[in-house]
């Protein structure tokens, strides 16, 4: 996880990841209270499944000793947050809330309890001011910008390969595969993070041919450095890039055309270039 390493924190790594992941949300506390109530008062097998499942996780992937000596060896600490997803906090909290409401027989008490439970969920969940401030309606059911969909349509209309390889800038590179699995992104997410100065996604040998190609692409597309025309051309060719997509007005159009990129379409906010890596370059 970002800024958290086993080497630095050791046995405190799991606790640090949990705090970073959940932030100011208090649902894990409600989950813990529900587990305790299940152990003390629970009679149904259905509610007991959360206890057994959680105990298993505490003995394995949430065990600080296992994490320190096993997770570190398999180099999975950057993806450790995925283990937090399997803790059934949200389903369990919802279940316990329903159980609490239905524990009463009289309707008016159920109504009051339901209101109290919902109020508790709102107060103990993510802060409302943050939710309201950052709230934005999705542009479509895919939860990606409509302009990205237009870009993907253009690429598929002009593709010559079954699996076109595309250089996207940072604003689209991380989400394009969320919408279109038929497009291969040339720029590596981890290499992009490393180029920004962070090592949370891993380290790279800066003299390796792979990283040199990635850096040459990132320098132009994301950092607007136009000092190495030959390096950029070579990176496009060796990575077998078919298309380059940039934000309008952010990348030097003349530089790209001089490098062999042909402008084939324009969307609301993007230029789409075609690059034929099979052609010799001057």
Description:
This protein has 282 residues and is α/β, with parallel strands linked by helices. The protein has 2 domains: 6-133; 146-275, no CATH class. It has helices spanning 6-9, 13-22, 27-41, 45-59, 64-71, 81-85, 89-102, 107-124, 128-133, 146-158, 170-173, 176-179, 189-195, 209-221, 229-238, 253-258, and strands at residues 165-168, 184-185, 243-247, 261-266, 270-275. Strand 4 and strand 5 (270-275) form a beta hairpin. Helix 3 (27-41) crosses helix 7 (89-102), helix 7 packs antiparallel against helix 8 (107-124) and helix 14 (209-221) packs across helix 15 (229-238).
Summarize the structure.
54% of the residues lie in helices and 8% in strands.
Question: What are the salient characteristics of this protein?
Answer:
282 residues, alpha/beta, 2 domains, five-stranded mixed beta sheet, 16 helices
What secondary-structure arrangement, pairings included, does this model have?
Layout lengths: L5 H4 L3 H10 L4 H15 L3 H15 L4 H8 L9 H5 L3 H14 L4 H18 L3 H6 L12 H13 L6 E4 L1 H4 L2 H4 L4 E2 L3 H7 L13 H13 L7 H10 L4 E5 L5 H6 L2 E6 L3 E6 L7
Parallel strand pairs: 1-2, 1-3
Antiparallel strand pairs: 3-5, 4-5
């Amino acid at each position: 996880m970002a800024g958290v390493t086993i080497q630095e924190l050791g046995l405190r790594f799991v606790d640090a990841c949990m705090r970073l992941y959940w932030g100011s949300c208090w649902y894990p506390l409600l989950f813990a209270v529900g587990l305790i109530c299940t152990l003390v008062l629970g009679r149904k097998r259905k509610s007991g499944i959360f206890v057994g499942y959680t105990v298993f996780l505490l003995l394995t992937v949430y065990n600080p000793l296992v994490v320190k000596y096993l997770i570190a060896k398999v180099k999975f600490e950057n993806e450790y947050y995925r283990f937090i997803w399997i803790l059934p906090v949200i389903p369990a909290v919802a279940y316990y809330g329903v159980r609490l409401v239905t524990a009463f027989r009289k309707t008016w008490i159920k109504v009051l309890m339901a209101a109290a439970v919902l109020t508790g969920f709102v107060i103990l969940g993510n802060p409302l001011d943050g939710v309201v401030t950052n709230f934005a309606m999705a542009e479509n059911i895919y939860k990606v910008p409509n302009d990205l969909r237009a870009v993907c349509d253009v690429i598929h209309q002009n593709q010559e390969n079954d699996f076109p390889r595309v250089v996207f800038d940072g604003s689209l590179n991380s989400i394009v595969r969320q919408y279109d699995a038929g497009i291969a992104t040339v720029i590596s997410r981890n290499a992009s993070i490393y180029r920004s100065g962070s090592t949370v996604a891993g380290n790279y040998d800066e003299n390796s041919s792979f990283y040199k190609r990635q850096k040459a692409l990132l320098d132009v597309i994301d950092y607007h450095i136009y000092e190495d025309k030959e390096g950029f051309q070579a990176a496009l060719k060796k990575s077998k890039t078919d298309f380059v997509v940039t934000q309008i007005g952010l990348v030097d159009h003349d530089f790209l055309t001089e490098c062999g990129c042909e402008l084939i379409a324009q969307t609301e906010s993007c230029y789409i270039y075609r690059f034929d890596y099979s052609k010799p370059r001057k």
